[in-house]
Amino acid sequence: MILMRNHASRSRRPASRLFALAGGVGLAAASLTGCAAFSDSGPSSDGTGKVSVVAAFYPLEFISSRVGGDHVSITDLTAPGAEPHDLELSVKETAEVSEADLVVYEKGFQAQVDAAVDQSGAPTVDAGAAAGLEKIGHDGHDHEGGSTHGESTGLGDLDPHFWQDPLKMADVADTVAEELATIDPAHADSYRANAAKLRSDLEALDQEYAAGLTGCARTTVVVSHDAFGYLTRYGLEFESIAGLSPDAEPTPADLARLQELITSDGITTVFGERLASPKMAQTLADDMGVSMKVLDPIEGLDSDTADQDYLSLMEQNLAALQEANQCR
């Protein structure tokens, strides 16, 4: 199935909106919320008439673009090719958070974004709360080494990678639409219609996964880091080399367990990823005489995926899982 996509134009660095106040304290106006912060000419005081949205990393930018359409101007805090787990904000980016009409982020996932949000008065959408995060290991397996070591988020035992579940993405989109409708009531119908269209696309993707991952010869998948737990509802089990953070180091016992699993389950593929080093996955695959291929966590785009979007990358992941697991 080919899903129809609606790309809103994206800009990594829209011009900052400076509030000229006596004494140069320009960030005070960021404490205004909702439509009360806007002049009669439109939501943004920079003269564009667009709502300024700051998204913390790519899946949230995708949602904001699809829901906001032509009525929003979007800044993605995580640059293309960068790993969102390791995000460090510049002074300029911190100011952009404070000056935004809306910040879409995941509380507890990126510490510096949390700090910038806490210092700002900008309205926010916490995507994790909107999605309904589940516990690490919500597939019912212990993941003895992989999913617990190297845990580096502020979410405790909750798995932050909700965007692997298309239906949770749809829930976040609905929440973003309602917040935008409050901020910019003149375009409320447009935001809600865009969210409804996106939900339709995401529900179709969910159906593709449910149908495409039935009748597989095997259900165990070895991946680079523990980013795919939300896909377990389609009947798969994921074992990771690293933990929640892709730069976590596995122990010799972790690697020995994975080697035994690859042999016992007849696994043919170890999956690496794009934004993090493939070295660990490639070494394990070489040691076991199996293939190493890419399963994209979709935490961000890079030069190889600049012409793709969340939907197309999820479809590519589905095809890779079907091939590796011999799904009919």
Write the layout of secondary structure elements.
Layout: E1 51-55, H1 58-68, E2 72-76, H2 91-99, E3 102-105, H3 111-119, E4 124-126, H4 127-131, H5 166-183, H6 188-212, E5 220-223, E6 237-240, H7 252-265, E7 269-272, H8 279-288, E8 291-294, H9 310-325
Parallel strand pairs: 1-2, 1-3, 3-4, 5-6, 5-7, 7-8
Helix pairs in contact: 1-5, 1-6, 2-3, 5-6, 6-9
Summarize the structure.
Helix content is 36%, strand content 10%.
Describe what this molecule looks like in 3D.
- With 328 residues, the chain is α/β, with parallel strands linked by helices.
- The protein is built from 9 helices and 8 strands.
- It has a 4-stranded parallel sheet with strand order 2-1-3-4, sandwiched between helices. A 4-stranded parallel sheet has the order 6-5-7-8, with helices on both faces.
Spell out the key features of this protein.
8 strands, four-stranded parallel sheet, 328 residues, 9 helices
